[in-house]
User: Which sequence fits this backbone?
């Protein structure tokens, strides 16, 4: 009998992400307002679209396996050497590479229970163990708890999303420096900064690599290129070198490299997206206050509305779905009483506000 390896066989079947396409298929609907995956409501930069469109006829070529031009542009931005940048097919691929290279089978990694799930997904898939640490009661990441657990387990990797998904909370540069110092020396800090551009720029870690840290960045959120699948890691060269040995040489789409490079030249567009996102976040906060659904402070392009119990949050997500609005909710307490809603464009926000208000009027809150 043909069987998968025992690590894979031991993983229960199931999928960490159910896409909106399947939800639409199963419910027989043609369109939904997509506010469930923190995709940019503002699209890619017109410069990125033009550059990618112009190169489409050359999709018969492989992309540059070194992503040389993009790494060069990124290195300049980050005050880093080219060898301190690794371009991957999104942060999701990078998380897998870090796990594969730095978490031996049977070793332990530490992460928050209920944070962005892809890290744990890779850790389990490569035969590692994940020690989870609960969020604090206020819905923020328990940095002290993560550090003490990493020390207790002598963890190989500690994963931290900052700003965090799904809470939206953010720890400033000082807190992160203290946190790194509290981890065992042998622990790699995998810092997922998918939403960093949305946080207060004066509170961010300096733009450079840090010893013992792999910083993960993406073009999926601010730059609106989620479907192109491109992101990168910033780390000391000795942390990236092992990944070069096993990475998928042609894993990064050629067109994605071209779009990402063009996106980097359009700072005006990125600034505009940031401003519009901040306005949208403020609108959500006001909407939550009006409807009696307090919002959690967010440094991202999404906001959590507190529905005060898991049951009510489940009911609100389902009621929104029935009205054609796709959102998601955190799965684990204390955040499971919230719904997580991506900041849409102006029209989508109005649509969402109308539907949420109607639901709140009907579901006794
Ligand atoms: C969206 C998201 C990602 C995915 O990034 P890709 O570059 O699209 O793979 C990674 N981490 C967090 C925390 C996210 O929310």
Assistant:
């Amino acid at each position: 009998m043909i069987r998968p390896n025992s690590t894979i066989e031991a993983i229960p079947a199931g999928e960490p992400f159910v896409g909106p396409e399947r939800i639409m298929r199963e419910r027989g609907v043609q369109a939904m307002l997509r506010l469930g995956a923190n995709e940019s409501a503002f699209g890619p930069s017109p410069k990125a679209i033009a550059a990618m469109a112009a190169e489409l006829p050359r999709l018969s070529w492989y992309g540059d396996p070194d992503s040389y031009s993009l790494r060069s542009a990124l290195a300049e931005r980050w005050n880093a050497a080219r060898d301190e940048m690794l371009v991957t097919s999104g942060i999701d691929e990078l998380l897998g590479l870090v796990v594969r290279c730095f978490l031996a089978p049977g070793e332990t990694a530490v992460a928050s229970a209920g944070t962005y799930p892809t890290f744990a997904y890779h850790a389990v898939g490569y035969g590692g163990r994940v020690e989870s640490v609960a969020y604090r009661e206020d819905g923020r990441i328990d940095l002290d708890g993560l550090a003490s657990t990493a020390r207790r387990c002598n963890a190989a990797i500690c994963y931290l999303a900052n700003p965090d998904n799904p809470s939206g909370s953010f720890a400033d540069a000082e807190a992160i420096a203290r946190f790194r110092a509290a981890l065992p020396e042998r622990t790699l800090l995998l810092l997922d900064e998918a939403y960093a551009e949305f946080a207060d720029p004066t509170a961010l870690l300096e733009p450079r690599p840090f010893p013992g840290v792999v910083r993960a960045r993406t073009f999926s959120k601010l730059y609106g290129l989620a479907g192109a699948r491109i992101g990168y890691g910033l780390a000391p060269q000795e942390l990236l070198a092992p990944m070069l040995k096993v990475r998928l040489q042609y894993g990064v789409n050629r067109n994605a490299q071209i779009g990402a490079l063009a996106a980097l030249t359009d700072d005006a567009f990125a600034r505009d997206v940031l401003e519009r996102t901040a306005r949208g976040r403020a609108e959500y906060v006001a909407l939550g206050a009006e409807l009696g659904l307090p919002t959690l402070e967010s440094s991202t392009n999404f906001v959590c509305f507190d529905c005060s119990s898991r049951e009510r949050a489940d009911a609100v997500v389902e009621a929104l779905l029935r009205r054609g609005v796709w959102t998601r909710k955190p799965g684990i307490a204390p955040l499971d009483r919230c719904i997580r809603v991506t900041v849409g464009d102006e029209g989508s926000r109005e649509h969402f506000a109308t539907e949420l208000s109607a639901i709140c009027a009907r579901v006794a809150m």
Notes: The chain has a mean pLDDT of 96. The two ends are 54 Å apart (CA to CA).
